[in-house]
Structures are given as C-alpha cells and as structure tokens.
Amino acid sequence: MMETDDTAIQIGLPGLIRLQADARALRLPGARPVRTRQAGLQRSPQRGRGMAFAEVRLYQPGDDIRSIDWRVTARRQSPHTKLYEEERERPVLLICDLGPTLFFGSQGAYKQVRCAQLAGILAWLALAAGDQVGGIVFSEQGFLVQRPARRKKAVLQLLDALARFQHSPQTRASLQRERSHNLDIAMQEARRVAHTGSRIFVLSDFLALTDETSRLLGALTRHNSVSTLRIVDPLEQKLPASGQFAVAGPDGPVWFNGADRRFQEAFQARVRAHEQSVERCFRMAGVLDQVVSTADDPAQSLRLILGPRGRIG
Description:
Blueprint: H1 13-17, H2 20-23, E1 47-48, E2 52-58, H3 70-76, E3 80-85, E4 91-97, H4 111-128, E5 132-139, E6 142-149, H5 152-164, H6 182-193, E7 199-204, H7 213-221, E8 225-232, H8 234-237, E9 244-249, E10 252-257, H9 261-285, E11 289-293, H10 298-305
Parallel strand pairs: 4-5, 4-7, 7-8, 8-11
Antiparallel strand pairs: 1-3, 2-3, 5-6, 9-10
Helix pairs in contact: 4-5, 6-7, 7-9
C-alpha cells in the first residue's frame, strides 16, 4: 500500500532535512582499515592516545600510566588502562539516479522518493561521523556534481538537488522516451572527483544497464569501497495473479490483465533476464547486490544493510 502523505510521490527539501532525526539512530562505520597517518575524523583500528574512547582493559607492562582509568582501577582493585582509537576522515560520495524509471511506485513510495531518502540519511550519517560528504545527482531535470566537503552546507546543497531533480506528475508527460546513459556518465564523473579510498554508494534501480556499466563500476571499486543500493518496487518483480490493472506510462496508462497466463509468463521471463543481467554486472564489478524495496522504511532498510565496520552484506 502507498503511503498516504504527500511525500509518497515526491519529497521536498524540508522532508529530506527532517531525515537527520532518522540518522541519529544509525551510525555509518568505516569501510576499510585506514592505511595513512593523516589526522582526521575517521576511526582507525590502530590503538593509541587518539580522540575517540574505545575500551578499558587490564593494565599491561609498557602502557602509558597517564592512560590508567583510576575509577575502574579503584572499583576492580586492579590497574586498568583506557584505550583509544585514532579518528580519521574519509570522503563519502553518493551517486543518486533520479531518472524517469524511478518515477514509479505501487507500494510505500515512488522509487525516486526512496532514492532521495536513502541518500539523505547516508549524507546525515556521514556528516555526523565527521566525514566529507559529496554526491552526483542526475535526472532529466539536471546533473549536479557536489565535491565532498565536511560542512553542513555541502549536505544541504546535495539535499536541495535531490529535491529539485525529482519528477512530478506535471513533468511526467515530458520525460524522454529513450533514457540516456546517465548512470554511466555519473560513474565516469565519479572517477574524476573521488579521492582514492572514498566510500561510494550507487543508488539506482539499475534498469538501464549498458555494456559499459560493469566496467565503470569495476573501475570505481579498484581504488574505493563501493556499495550499490538497488531500489525496486514489488510490482516490478511480480504481477497480481488476477484483475485488470493500469500502470502510468509516458504515453498514458497501460492496462494489463493479471489472469492472462501468456502475459504473466512473458513478464516473468523479462524479470529473470534482467535479474541475470544485474547479477552478472555486479559480479564482474565485484560489488554486492543490495536490494531496497519501496515497500520498506528507508531507515530500517539501512539499519539492516549497514554492518560492522561499514561492510555492507
């Protein structure tokens, strides 16, 4: 069932700003161990006298006596040492596809809304962790490249593009009949703006795969930690078994009969073919296929996807 508020079809900047509250309950961990010694705001597994408290353990010979936790020592009657984790900063880049195929939804909200919500929560999470936040947002409405920066202003500019580049019922009729390869263009641009070691999220429905998509995605993964969030609607995976239904298209509503066996078989054959193409593309690129349904709450979806140390799986 579709959500009943106005954000089910299109979400504006105020709604994306309010997602900061959802992000407070989540944490965006590091994707890879830090290999450099440049000071910043991202935690490293290297233990020392850093900025972030890690844990308390029994004192060991050679520990700095300045790190002794005297309260714990008094309570447990044995010396204990505070351990810290150095904090590092790393760029987070969000590649957000708001193309015409995402102007669709049968449950929860439209795919473009879920894409914007997921990107918004990730942006707020990264900013709260002290990371640089940037993104590439594109649709037929425009193409924005926001270089990563550790400022709230950068997040707000990214959210503004996510709000402006969505389609509305008024713009649907003017959507291009043949979608350009904007996802490939966005990944080419990402190679130019992403620093080595960046955390990159690609948010799309991946309905417009090309022969170049896998190569470009794989090129990003060679020097960065890349995760894909594939946004799907339940109706794209399985049609109702019976009844007459209409789906909006650029040429007007398209009617289908769920009880038509030949139509159902042809539809499922296309679904299987596309799923195989996506699986092959992601396997060759070396990324996992993380599926987010429009029927699910975006914050809860990220809670399930974001694992310890930023490994998505």
